[in-house]
Amino acid sequence: MFNNFHQRDYIVNFWMIRTELIQMCAMVVAVNKIDRSDANVDKITNDLLQHGVVPEKLGGDVMIVPVSAKTGENLDKLKSSILLLAEMLELRAPVEGRAQGVVIESKIERNCGVVATVIVQRGTLRKGNVVVAGDGSYGKVRNMFDDSDNSVEEALPSMPVRVLGLDKVPKAGDVFLVMPSEKHARDLLEHRAGINLSRGRDSGRNDSVFTGPLFSMDRPEGVNMILKADVAGSLEAILAQ
């Protein structure tokens, strides 16, 4: 995904694309913010060309789709392009067995508790499954909702769903796994916690920021604040600055 007019952002992302080109045989490029009056899709297309990304209209095999996340323009075309590419590459994923996938986003909603948006990569995720997400979150799937906010009983590979039932908020990018039972889930998390603790000791890492007295002349200068974000990913982006 490329944003128009953010030179620094998309030049940095070119290095990511060059890496992806080595690992992949095909891709779809989405150029965002075409709703702006000074949108310049051709410039980004030419920049991509200079970095070895040849669009279809110039004889290459890369589909470039101008979109607007704000207005929703061409999002249906982007979806169709991705599906077409997947069909051409004959991409398949097994639907049998316990589900596995990735957490896309997560947050806490009133009256719902922890809500994690996940995408299934293999297997079938069903209501009632016991799920482990990352190194510290697990629970039984109480309910699932698709992208149209309809309650669903199961989610197949490539299907994004919002999952209710986890005990803690997982991080974006965490891998989730369906476990045979809650006991197996707890045992796995305890095992992972032990590994992480051992790694922390070996590296000598100290995650504490300040452990001295609350009121002290030697206390580092700063402003205490409480950050509240809509989703966990937004909070991570703020803290990374």
TrEMBL record:
Keywords: GTP-binding, Initiation factor, Nucleotide-binding, Protein biosynthesis. GO terms for molecular function: GTP binding; translation initiation factor activity. The keyword S-adenosyl-L-methionine does not apply. It comes from the Bacteria. GO terms for cellular component: cytoplasm. InterPro entries: EF-G-like_DII, IF2_II, P-loop_NTPase, TIF_IF2, Transl_B-barrel_sf. Residues 99-178 form the Elongation factor G-like domain. Pfam families: EF-G_D2 (PF22042). This is Translation initiation factor IF-2. The gene is infB.
